[in-house]
């Protein structure tokens, strides 16, 4: 069983523009509106892979219907805690050359008792057959070490944890040694306090350093440059080029990759299959408009084309 936890869901509005001109009037077409937030995207991508999950976390009362309607239409089980406030809207501008500009709102403020409610809920779900997906930013009112607290609690019950976060939340989560993480290049650099672009050699070295902490699977995604995979069962790091596909929207590509990774772990697939699935599902998300994950046919077609 996979439980996705989204502390800060979002209604994503993605718009494709030829070229975005900062400081100028930019007229846009109709945006694609999606139910987003990292864990929610993972649940949606898992569904396309034929895997069920339960989506939990916090939802701001205003705007929650948009997210709940989408998840219900996709037959994804939900168990959110309703909070006062507005579910945020995040704006994404996709340019023809593949540049993505994101404007993410901070989200609602969560009351202390709601945090305790969520922790209790999560503890009840935790058994040795469960993978938790802790993904995305932490809203106001929630301590930044919440992911670390959850990891420690559910590990005691034998559950496994995947974390996709940035900044302080990632630093704290890593202290509790999750089972799998997927930082992107920028998050990797930030974690190690490096304020410049990393060379490929450095990315490999830093991936290895994270793996040496004891995190079973470390994947560093590098956008159009591909990804590096480190798995405790394997001696070598694996680097994969991104698959050459037509780019429509890179929003949600990281979450699609996260879904493929957790799916592969849950199904105990060998590393090579995990790598191929992660590359194909994330490439599929890039081909698909807006935040949405690729459908099954798109994934199968990409797997067939690139891996035979
Ligand atoms: N332009 C692209 N072409 C092909 N694949 C891509 C492209 N951008 C992203 N991907 C795929 O999606 C994965 C995740 O993208 P990335 O941007 O690194 O994640 P995040 O959204 O978490 O920052 C990449 O490792 C790659 O497999
Ligand atoms: O919680 P955060 O870090 O603000 O991220 C939320 C945003 O990330 C997304 O989940 C997309 O993430 P990726 O592009 O990394 O897959 C959007 O749906 C959402 O707007």
Descriptors:
single chain; binds 1,6-di-O-phosphono-beta-D-fructofuranose; binds adenosine-5'-diphosphate; four-stranded mixed beta sheet; alpha/beta; 308 residues; 10 helices; UDP-N-acetylmuramoyl-L-alanine:D-glutamate ligase
Task: Summarize the entry for a quick read.
The protein has 308 residues and is α/β, with parallel strands linked by helices.
Question: How would you describe the overall organization of this protein?
Answer:
This is Tagatose-6-phosphate kinase. Catalyzes the ATP-dependent phosphorylation of fructose-l-phosphate to fructose-l,6-bisphosphate. One of its GO terms (molecular function) is tagatose-6-phosphate kinase activity. Helix 4 runs parallel beside helix 5 and helix 9 (about 270-285) packs across helix 10 (about 295-305). The chain has helices at about 40-50, 65-75, 110-125, 145-155, 165-175, 185-190, 200-210, 255-265, 270-285, 295-305; strands at about 1-5, 10-15, 30-35, 55-60, 75-85, 90-95, 100-105, 130-135, 160-165, 180, 215-220, 225-230, 240. It has ten helices and 13 strands. The radius of gyration is 18 Å and the shape is globular. By secondary structure, the chain is α/β, with parallel strands linked by helices. Helix content is about 40%, strand content about 25%. The strands form two sheets. It has a nine-stranded mixed sheet with strand order 5-4-1-8-9-10-11-12-13, with helices on both faces. It has a four-stranded mixed sheet with strand order 3-2-6-7. The model has no long low-confidence stretch (mean pLDDT about 95). The structure holds adenosine-5'-diphosphate and 1,6-di-O-phosphono-beta-D-fructofuranose (FBP). 1,6-di-O-phosphono-beta-D-fructofuranose binds near residues 10, 38, 104, 137 and 254.
């Amino acid at each position: 069983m996979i439980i996705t936890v989204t502390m800060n869901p979002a209604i994503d509005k993605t718009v494709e523009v030829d070229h975005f001109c900062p400081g100028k009037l930019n007229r846009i077409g109709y945006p694609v509106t999606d139910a987003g937030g990292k864990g929610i995207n993972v649940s949606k991508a898992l569904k396309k892979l034929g895997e069920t999950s339960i989506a939990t976390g916090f939802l701001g009362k205003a705007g929650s219907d948009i997210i709940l309607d989408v998840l219900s239409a996709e037959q994804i089980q939900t168990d959110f805690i309703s909070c006062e406030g507005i579910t945020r809207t995040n704006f994404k501008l996709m340019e023809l050359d593949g540049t993505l500009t994101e404007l993410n709102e901070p989200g609602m403020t969560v009351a202390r008792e709601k945090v305790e409610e969520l922790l209790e809920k999560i503890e009840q779900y935790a058994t040795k057959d469960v993978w938790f997906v802790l993904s995305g930013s932490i809203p106001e009112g929630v301590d930044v070490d919440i992911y670390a607290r959850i990891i420690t609690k559910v590990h005691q019950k034998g559950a496994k944890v995947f974390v996709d976060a940035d900044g302080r939340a990632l630093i704290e989560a890593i202290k509790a040694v999750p089972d799998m993480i997927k930082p992107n290049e920028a998050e990797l650099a930030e974690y190690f306090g490096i304020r410049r672009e990393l060379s490929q050699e450095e990315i490999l070295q830093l991936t290895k350093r994270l793996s040496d902490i004891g995190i079973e699977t470390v994947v560093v995604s590098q956008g159009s440059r591909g990804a590096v995979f480190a798995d405790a069962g394997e001696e070598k790091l694996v680097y994969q080029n991104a698959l050459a596909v037509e780019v429509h929207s890179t929003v949600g590509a990281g979450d699609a990759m996260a879904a493929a990774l957790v799916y592969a772990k849950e199904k105990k697939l060998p590393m090579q299959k995990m790598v191929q699935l992660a590359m194909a599902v994330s490439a599929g998300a890039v081909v698909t408009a807006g935040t949405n994950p690729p459908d099954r046919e798109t994934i199968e077609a990409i797997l067939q084309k690139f891996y035979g």
